[in-house]
Specification:
With 215 residues, the protein is an alpha+beta fold. The chain has nine helices and eight strands. The chain binds zinc ion (2 copies).
């Protein structure tokens, strides 16, 4: 592992202790008791954490770096969980740890938009919002939304299908694929939509799992 990656991993581990679960305590001993392989000296040297009156805490720059690393890690988890549908926890974690470093190179916001600006990771932990999320909250129309939130007659492009693999397979076998244009023809009593020249009727549960890029 490169040293900057090692630092990021350490900052992420500390996030849970210093920010998310203050009951763990933030003295050197408490932190090392919770996670022994954390390079505290390195983080202190780099000016990412500081020790004040026996308590460790992030410096301003350390906090920003940690928040951004946590955000990229949890977005990566979402990516593997929702889109690639990895169901194995270990595979997801391993893949997320590698991808979070690639996400830094400018595609983080693209991924966040694609995922619909998720607020939590698959474990239910909060994803710190990015600039893209704050902008999306401001705009009334979400960039991507489930088919169930579209209006009758509204058009869009299928962004991805969020479902257990059986549902996904069924929809894909029907020809409902990401990248295809979709029109919602009716939303009652079932969801009727067209993709190309074919028309489909699905229940609300299935419609909820079709995520559409609107407009
Ligand atoms: Zn998680
Ligand atoms: Zn976002």
């Amino acid at each position: 592992m490169k040293s900057d990656e090692r630092i990021e991993e350490a900052l992420e581990k500390l996030w849970e202790i210093l920010v998310e679960d203050s009951s763990l305590g933030n003295s050197r001993e408490k932190i090392l008791a919770h996670t022994s392989d954390i390079p505290l000296e390195l983080l202190l040297q780099e000016g990412l954490i500081e020790e004040v009156g026996g308590s460790l805490g992030y410096t301003a720059s350390g906090r920003l770096a940690a928040q951004s690393a946590i955000r990229r890690h949890r977005l990566s988890e979402r990516l593997f969980h929702d889109i690639i549908e990895t169901s194995q926890e270990e595979t997801m974690e391993e893949a997320a740890c590698q991808v979070e470093h690639i996400l830094k190179k400018g595609i983080e916001e693209e991924v966040c938009r694609l995922l619909g600006h998720p607020q939590t990771c698959p474990h239910g932990k909060p994803i710190p919002p990015g600039k893209c999320c704050l902008a999306a909250v401001k705009s009334i129309e979400q960039f991507v939304a489930p088919l169930t939130s579209m209006k009758k007659g509204e058009k869009g492009i299928i962004a991805y299908i969020k479902a257990g693999s059986k549902k996904l397979q069924k929809l894909m076998a029907m020809g409902v694929l990401p990248g295809n244009a979709i029109v919602l023809d009716s939303n009652f009593p079932s969801f009727v939509f067209s993709v190309g020249y074919s028309q489909y009727a699905v229940d609300a549960d299935m419609a909820e799992s079709i995520i559409v890029k609107r407009g």
